[in-house]
Write a structure and sequence with these properties.
The structure is a single chain. It contains five helices and three strands; from the N terminus they run E-H-H-E-E-H-H-H. The protein is mainly alpha-helical. Strands 1-3-2 form a three-stranded antiparallel beta sheet.
Length: 148
């Protein structure tokens, strides 16, 4: 089944697993403006907006501020077509963020990536321990590994 041409606010929220109010709040802040509106003013969102909303949710879960998340979405919109495909022809002038904003964003991403990399082994270790605990020692991937 093909995705809908456009989502209403409620449909977009349902697909992303958030409340309608969250979508409306992000729209009010300019993080996720509607792609179109009906004659009666009802907001409509493209399927690509679902990806952007999921990105916003993930970025917030990773600890990014709303401003940082907004800049990430702005960067994605500037470098991708409305359908979400990467635009190979984008130029620096297409990105409405200053070099200072981009530098700040780059530094923040490096901090987050470093934290993620440091925690990757811990997460895998906890997952293996919990898998052993709740499956009687049978691991789905790989084999049993002893934890110290």
């Amino acid at each position: 089944m093909a995705p809908p041409s456009f989502y209403t606010t409620a449909e977009l929220a349902r697909e992303a697993g958030v409340t309608r109010r969250t979508v409306m709040h992000y729209a009010e802040l300019g993080l996720l403006p509607p792609d179109q509106a009906t004659a009666s003013g009802r907001a409509l969102y493209s399927p690509y907006s679902l990806r952007l909303l999921r990105d916003l949710i993930d970025l917030r879960a990773l600890g990014m501020t709303l401003e940082e998340a907004r800049d990430m979405v702005t960067l994605r919109r500037a470098t991708h077509a409305p359908d979400g495909t990467y635009r190979r022809d984008w130029a620096r002038g297409d990105v409405p963020l200053s070099d200072e904003q981009l530098g700040r964003l780059h530094r923040r991403l490096r901090v987050l990536r470093g934290a993620y990399e440091r925690q990757q082994d811990n997460l895998a270790r906890f997952d293996r321990w919990l898998t052993k605990r709740f499956t009687g020692g049978v691991l789905e991937e790989g084999g049993l590994e002893e934890e110290s």
